[in-house]
Amino acid sequence: SGRSGTSLSVVGPANIGTKRLLVLGMGKLDEKSAGDGFAKLGAGLVARLKSLRVAKAVVVLDGPEFNPEAIAGLVAGMRLRHYEFDKYKSKKPDDDTPQPPDKLGVTLVVGEKRATDKAIANRDAVTEGTLLARTLSNEPANVLGPAEFATIANRLADHGLEVEVFDDDRLAELGMGALLSVAQGSARPARLVVLEWRGAKKSSAPVAFIGKGVCFDSGGISIKPAGGMGEMKGDMGGAAAVVGLMKSFALRKAKLNAVGVIGLVENMPDGKATRPGDIVTSMSGQTIEVDNTDAEGRLVLADALWYTEDRFKPRFMIDLATLTGAVMVALSHVHAGLFTPDDGLADQIEKAGIASGETVWRLPLNPAYDKMINSRFADMKNSGGRWGGASTAAQFLKRFVRDVAWAHIDVAGTAFGAPSTDINRSWGSGYGVALLDRLARDNFEGK
Ligand code: BES
Ligand code: MN
Ligand code: ZN
User: Fold this and answer.
1) Ligand 1 site, residue 137, Cβ cutoff 6 A
2) Segments of 162-298 assigned E as strands
3) What's the 294 CA to ligand 1 centre distance in angstroms?
């Protein structure tokens, strides 16, 4: 019928010298559905090839819709769908069903080769970033602790990023008492990684992305219930997306200056761990009563945000964090929660969300939420209680931003465990890379 999602498989039409001819229905794909629609088509193609256990295919893309951008979208969809995190499966399922080959080789037959190669390389940079973020999220915490994460980030220097890794002594010198208070219950020390991409003239202020990198969040002394605690290996999804994003800037040589700052810790209960009631001093000098050691992400971000503004004076800061269960209560896995006092930035991020398919929904900041985190003993406490938990967390972060535009994106519902889509079958989604890449492309490059 030609409808999208349909296909017809013809075995061995001898006259074309191939084993199998597969005809895919595209449905109606127009300019508007470029990117997303073509990515879906590519994903569908890979799904079909996998189920047929095909290892090699020649794909003929014939028709005016297949412009370079569209084909790049199709290739992105193919790669995103093909991704599988199976490195810890030592055995394949032992039934008789033959498995699809690990590697799929696809040759595309296109009209304009040069322009298409260029478009694919450009889009592929973002796909690479997303896949890196997925893998970082999928890795278990015994393999990927703060130091290991920092080592992987450090390797991005090979692609032209400048990378600095700070160990816990250096973080103590900088006065990052909030971040360090989270790490102190873990046998694995904290790290802070700064990644810089210089793609524009030196005088142009960078844009900055800050990621929550809690490699495992047990809750600490305010320990989480056992059920589902294993998912907290993904509590570094924000940092993973920041690293993926910086990689994509480098791969496609983006024409902007950007910095990525990620705070890497493990939140564990221990004799040395922070207790509820403890008061810590952040790099900003503001004191925080740790009301609940499970509200650790904001402690990490407090120092990472302060440091970023202090050192780089960026055009804006956007932080990404798997920050609250409350944002999932509000938005489920459908959108990430967006918090910002800046209507212009909100508009740009919302638009980038729609264009990239990684959508956000704006939720409120308000002085009333600020009241909820006042502390009897310190400048503030790290928990505002059950009600409005996503907003009180965001309001907390705002206290660590002074003079730059800022947005906070709570990705607790979107970074991992979201339902499968055409282009994502992975637990860790890599959410945020495509969103922020789109934001940068559409608003901040070459300007
Ligand atoms: N990492 C969690 C939030 C989370 C929960 C992310 C589920 C993804 C899935 C965060 O550190 C946390 O524990 N937040 C607490 C805050 C509360 C103690 C104020 C929460 O949301 O319950
Ligand atoms: Mn927590
Ligand atoms: Zn957490």
Assistant:
1) no
2) 162-166, 191-198, 207-217, 257-267, 279-281, 287-289
3) 7
Cα 328 to middle of ligand 3, angstroms: 13
Question: Residues with beta carbon < 5 A to ion ligand 3?
Answer: 214, 217, 235, 297
The alpha carbon dihedral of 278, 284, 285, 286 has a sign of: negative
> Is there an atom of ligand 1 within 6 Å of 336 CB?
no
Report the interhelical angle of 146-154 vs 237-251 (nearest 10°): 10
Indicate if ligand 1 lies below 6 Å from the C-beta of 300: no
* Residue 10, CA distances (Å) to 24, 34, 46, 327 in order: 11, 28, 17, 48
Q: Which atom of ligand 1 is nearest to the CA of 326?
A: 21
Measured in Å, residue 241 CA sits from the centre of ligand 2 at 19
Ligand (nearest to CA of 323): 1
330 alpha carbon, closest ligand:
1
Tens of pLDDT along the chain (447 residues) come to 888 888 888 887 667 777 888 998 888 876 555 557 899 999 999 999 999 899 999 999 988 889 999 999 999 999 999 999 999 998 766 666 677 788 899 999 999 999 999 999 999 999 999 999 999 999 999 999 999 999 999 999 999 999 999 999 999 999 999 999 999 999 999 999 999 999 999 999 999 999 999 999 999 999 999 999 999 999 999 999 999 999 999 999 999 999 999 999 999 999 999 999 999 999 999 999 999 999 999 999 999 999 999 999 999 999 999 999 999 999 999 999 999 999 999 999 999 999 999 999 999 999 999 999 999 999 999 999 999 999 999 999 999 999 999 999 999 999 999 999 999 999 999 999 999 999 999 999 987
pTM confidence score: 0.96
Task: Let me know: does 446 contact 255? Beta carbons within 8 Å.
Answer: yes
> Is residue 410 lining ligand 1, measured as CB closer than 6 Å?
no
